[in-house]
Recover the amino acids of this structure.
């Protein structure tokens, strides 16, 4: 091998070494940047959302009104911190022609679950837990079935404006979702008739037959 060949080989080796070192350095910088980005993401506060279901359940237990709602509570971002839902509040305000009616005072009574009997095609409710704080994170969304009770109060036919408010830790503002409920005279009589055996009735906000402006996305009894 001539001196010129040895020089060319050495030159190519130096170039390859330089490229290798540059690539390794670039990869390390990229890895560091990604690590810093992921670390910054993890340090963010959880962004929790609450979504109401398309279906609410309502009934009477003797003279007490029962209101069942199962929202989805989830976090959009993966963080090291979790959010804690400390309390749940339901407000229901008579409006329009019944705005002067007595306003119910609902309180969070308990958390329950629904059992489905495929033979009888019947859904029943049972107690699951006492009202207590629960944790929400991206890998642990929650769908609790809240049971709210208003003592010695009953529905009247008309429109109601409602809200579900979930209280969080002191540094976070509450999560609030508004909704409306239209109670027909037929639905009121149906609910009153089922008070003795604690019957439960479905109200939906997504049925095509209730798509007119009159209902405007409100929850309406399925059989109206």
């Amino acid at each position: 091998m001539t001196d010129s060949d040895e020089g060319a080989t050495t030159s190519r080796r130096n170039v390859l070494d330089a490229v290798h070192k540059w690539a390794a350095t670039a990869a390390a910088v990229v890895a560091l940047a990604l690590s810093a980005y992921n670390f910054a993401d993890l340090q963010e506060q959880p962004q929790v959302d609450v979504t109401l279901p398309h279906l609410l359940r309502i009934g009477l237990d003797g003279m007490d009104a029962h209101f069942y709602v199962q929202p989805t509570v989830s976090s959009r971002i993966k963080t090291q911190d979790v959010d804690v839902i400390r309390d749940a509040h339901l407000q229901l305000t008579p409006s329009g022609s019944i705005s002067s009616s007595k306003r119910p005072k609902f309180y969070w009574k308990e958390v329950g679950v629904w059992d489905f009997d495929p033979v009888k095609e019947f859904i029943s409710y049972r107690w699951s837990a006492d009202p207590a704080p629960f944790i929400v994170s991206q890998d642990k969304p929650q769908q609790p079935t809240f049971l709210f009770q208003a003592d010695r109060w009953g529905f009247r036919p008309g429109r109601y404006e409602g809200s579900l408010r979930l209280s969080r830790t002191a540094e976070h503002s509450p999560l609030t979702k508004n909704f409306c409920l239209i109670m027909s005279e037929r639905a009121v009589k149906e609910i009153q008739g089922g008070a003795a055996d604690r019957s439960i009735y479905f109200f939906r906000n997504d049925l095509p037959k209730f798509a007119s402006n009159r209902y405007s996305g409100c929850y309406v009894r399925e059989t109206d």
